Amino acid sequence: MIYGTPADRNMVRLLGLHRRTPFVPVPGGGQRLQQPVHVEDLARAVVAALDAPAVSGEAYDVAGPEPLTFGNVIEQAAETLGRRARPVPVPLASPGRVPAPARAGGRSSPFQGRAARAAWPRDKAFDISAAIRDLGFEPRSFAEGIRQERPCCHDMVKGRAEGATAPQRR
Question: What gap in Å lies between CA 50 and CA 55, rounded to an integer?
Answer without folding.
Answer: 8
